[in-house]
């Protein structure tokens, strides 16, 4: 294969794989935060992830609020993505340590979750400036995902003069954690 074709194929697989993994992680977060199941976006995420997740749920039970099957699926998909990308690049799979792939996969999943929260908070902040008080199913879902975290930060740092600093504090913590995780990989 030509280098351009390999590069394009890698980009396509990486992008589609990461999007599906993020959908599985979003489903996990929606369940943990008890977000509105009847929201049209929640329904779309359920439909997208159910074909792989439902059979796995028969084998792996949940633990309280934690849907272990979705975390196992996300981890398995991330590991498969790393091995698939390595194979396309021509790297011999026997040279790749499973422990290293597992660690990188866990770090990638943590980074995906941090990115979901980061993008959610940025979208919420922009929407609060532009479309304050309007209803949007996507925005409501993002608020439901981030509110448990935001409310905990608000208990420590209450709004000052009507200005809620909790989003800014969470974004700073997310960037700190992302830098910490990047330092582990490199």
Q: Can you walk through the features of this model?
A:
With 186 residues, the protein is mainly alpha-helical. 77% of the residues lie in helices and 0% in strands. Helix 3 packs across helix 4 (98-130) and helix 4 runs antiparallel to helix 6 (166-185). The model has no long low-confidence stretch (mean pLDDT 90).
SSE topology sketch:
Layout lengths: L2 H30 L7 H18 L10 H22 L8 H33 L6 H20 L9 H20 L1
Helix pairs in contact: 1-2, 1-3, 1-4, 2-3, 3-4, 4-5, 4-6, 5-6
Low-confidence stretches: none
Task: Outline the biggest β-sheet.
Answer: none
The Rg value, from CA coordinates, equals: 19 Å
| Helix percentage | over 70%
Q: What share of residues are in beta strands? A: under 5%
What structural class do the secondary elements suggest?
mainly alpha
The number of distinct β-strands equals: 0
What sort of overall outline do the alpha carbons produce when their principal axes are compared? Answer: globular
Average pLDDT rating: 90
Write the H/E string, N to C.
HHHHHH
Distance between the termini: 30 Å
Tally of individual helices: 6
């Amino acid at each position: 294969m030509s280098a351009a074709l390999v590069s394009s194929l890698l980009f396509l697989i990486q992008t589609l794989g990461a999007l599906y993994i993020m959908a599985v992680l979003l489903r996990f977060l929606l369940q943990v935060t008890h977000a509105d199941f009847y929201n049209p976006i929640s329904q779309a995420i359920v439909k997208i992830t159910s074909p792989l997740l439902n059979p796995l749920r028969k084998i792996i039970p949940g633990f309280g609020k934690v849907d272990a099957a979705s975390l196992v699926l996300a981890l398995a998909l991330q590991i498969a993505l790393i091995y698939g990308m390595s194979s396309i690049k021509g790297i011999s799979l026997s040279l790749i340590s499973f422990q290293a792939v597992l660690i990188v996969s866990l770090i990638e999943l943590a980074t995906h979750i941090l990115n979901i929260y980061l993008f959610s908070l940025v979208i919420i902040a922009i929407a609060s400036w532009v479309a304050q008080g309007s209803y949007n199913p996507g925005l409501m879902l993002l608020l439901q995902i981030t509110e448990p975290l935001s409310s905990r930060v608000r208990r420590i740092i209450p709004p000052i003069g009507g200005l809620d600093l909790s989003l800014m504090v969470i974004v700073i913590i997310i960037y700190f954690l992302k830098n910490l995780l990047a330092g582990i990989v490199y």
